Amino acid sequence: MLPSKHPIITYPAFFLFHFYRSFFNIILQKRFYVIIGIYYHGGNCLSFTQDIIEELKKLGFNEYQAKVYTALVGLGVATASEISKASGVPANKVYSVIDSLKERGLVFAQESDTSANRYRPRSPDAVMKELRSEYEKAFQITEQKLFALYERSKKSFIPELWILRGAQAVFSKIKDMIMDATETVNIGIDSSFDLQLYGVDQVLKEASSFLKSIKIITGKDGIDNPNEVNILMSLAEFAEVRVSENFHAIWVITDSREILQGAYAQLEGGIELGIMATWSDNESFAKLWERFADSLWKTATSFEGINLPSA
């Protein structure tokens, strides 16, 4: 409740308690109660919680519709004049707003020949259930159609070679490659810390449930501190991990058909510019890199056989 000596209140105030289920936080989907302070100040202007308005706008209401519906829910039953005063929507606009809400089935009219029409809101529970159903249906249909369109067109629009600049772009593409793979993922990485930093380790863990093989190779510089060791130990729970001498590169090969390879770019003096990489879905190129990766894998040492720094 507002304190008894609120600096703005100049007339008696009243409050609405237990304001239906919170339909303004669909993500949480749990009940809580909203206390709305309603007061008159220098005229008949109703004050109500602004966050409700903003949430309704996300659900397809415009500003005036959100204000009118929220005010009417608070009032229960009201005339257009009362709704205008309560919501702050101009009197010359309120009728058209009410009509638009009536068309959507959100407001009902009690018409009268002898007095002003009165209006009542549709239950917020019913409104939110209907909106949720409509949004979920629209989401499913849109997702299916966009995915089908993407699958039909990606071969004609994706070039055989992409140039990627910056760690965010490179590791985002790596995660996409892993999730698109169906059988094998081979990774060469200079520092396992980057796999954790950009969330690749979690994507690998999820993909391990359906992939036949995950291989990760790193250099001795990639295990030179306990944090990197801990990351590799976690990866070794679902992937084969090996360590190679003088390894300084980044590559990812998936299903012998996609290849990403790159390096940490540096200026003279050791100033790091970030990661640069190329990606290709040219199978011949991918298989060529895979043969090189396999030869390096055979000479690398199993992670378990390395003298590791203390964790």
Protein model, in words:
The protein contains ten helices and 13 strands. It is 42% helix and 20% strand. Strand 8 (213-219), helix 9 (226-235) and strand 9 (240-244) form a beta-alpha-beta unit. The strands form three sheets. An eight-stranded mixed beta sheet has the order 6-12-11-10-7-8-9-13, with helices on both faces. The model is unreliable at 1-48 (pLDDT under 50). The radius of gyration is 31 Å and the shape is elongated. It has 311 residues and is α+β, with helices and mostly antiparallel strands. It folds into two domains: 14-128, Arc Repressor Mutant, subunit A (Orthogonal Bundle); 154-305, Endonuclease Chain A (Endonuclease, Chain A), CATH 3.30.870.
Instruction: Based on Cα principal axes, name the global outline.
Output: elongated
Point out poorly predicted stretches. Answer: 1-48
Strand content: 15-25%
**Roughly how many Å apart are the termini?**
53 Å
CATH architecture assignment of the largest domain: 2-Layer Sandwich
Write out the strand line-up for the largest beta sheet, numbering strands in chain order. 6-12-11-10-7-8-9-13
CATH class annotation of the largest domain: Alpha Beta
What is the C-alpha radius of gyration, as a whole number of Å?
31 Å
Characterize the main sheet. Answer: 8 strands, mixed
- Structural class label: alpha+beta
Tell me the number of helical segments per DSSP (H or I, 4 or more residues long).
10
The fold-level CATH name of the largest domain is Endonuclease, Chain A
Work out the helicity level.
40-55%
Mean pLDDT: 79
